[in-house]
Amino acid sequence: MIRIAYFIDHLRTGGAQKHLVELVRGLDRRRFAASVWTEKSGGELTAEIEGLGIRVRSLDVQRSLTEGRSLVRLAQVAYALRREGVHIVHGYLYAGNLVGSVAGLLSKVPVRIVSKRSLDSYRSWPKLLACRLSNRLADRVTVNARAVGQFVEREEGCAPGKMVVIPNGVDCSRLQCSDTGAREALGLSPGELVVGTVGRLTWKKAPECLLAAAQIFLQEEPRVRLLVVGDGPLRAQVEKQAEELGIHGRCIFTGGVSDASPFIHACDVFVLSSVIEGMANALLEALASGKPAVVTDAGGNSEVVQHGKTGFVVPRNTPSQLAQATLHLLRHPELAVQMGELARKDMEARFSLPRMVQSVETLYETLLREKGIRL
Q1: Is the four-CA dihedral 44, 49, 50, 52 of positive or negative sign?
Q2: Average pLDDT of the residues in 161-177
Q3: pTM of the model
Q4: 2-169+353-370, what's its fold?
């Protein structure tokens, strides 16, 4: 049995956290035994992981990883890894990567892996040095998109040969089940068209660009509504902008939701206006649901959407181009359906959840063999 300890900052709802839940759910239980460590305790996904029979423990860091109490906990974690005979530590996000790699080194865990999933720059030298340290201590650095790998090489000095690309995966079979009640629940009439987006309302998602584009396509097409699924620090600012643009009455703001798939099924076109992106799970889910997408060229978006085939890719911060591409799909419903069907097949071929889990399992077994360990 291969024993893996996963390390992550927290288990509140987020892209990396949902990815981890799906990964541990999909692992072959006959070959792999997982446990999870977090920097901070709590989070709504804790119960979901524990419901899979997987133990979740926390360092319960109050302020900083460098405070005395945290260093004591780090030593305790290293002791636990050694006592439990863990073969692999796999970190996610800043704290998870750092703690996992250092604790793995201290406990002489054979294989250490860190993960990079976004294009976030660390403004402080201590954090950047910590990232470089965790990369240095790792046997492999997984990235979820080629664009992320290029960023990590450029910003963190990680050797390309140390990185392996494992794209995110989604449960295509679950997402292909249409939800006919979603439109009714949103109060939509049969003749209305929906342009939707899903994501946290932060500067990275550039919601101001989406609303500027929406002003254009809502003026051009009176049957269209804009659906914004998600919450975040810019929520009030986004709604205020919608009022100032005179489109608030044609926008639907759902706030945060635990499952966005019913809302995705209500859409005719999915839009992502990001300025920074790793590989958006919401985009994968939309395409797997058979929705054509209009996205910016941020990060891994252009690796997911095949321009002109499964949707359109436009430059970042260009509301007019975002609007025109969206209008093209709204005005050509047969093309939108054709692109959506191709998107569904493309997700099954390249971004399915079983494919992602198998890639991770293969990486684990390959690295153990390189260390001369056969289990």
Answers
A1: positive
A2: 89
A3: 0.89
A4: Rossmann fold (3.40.50)
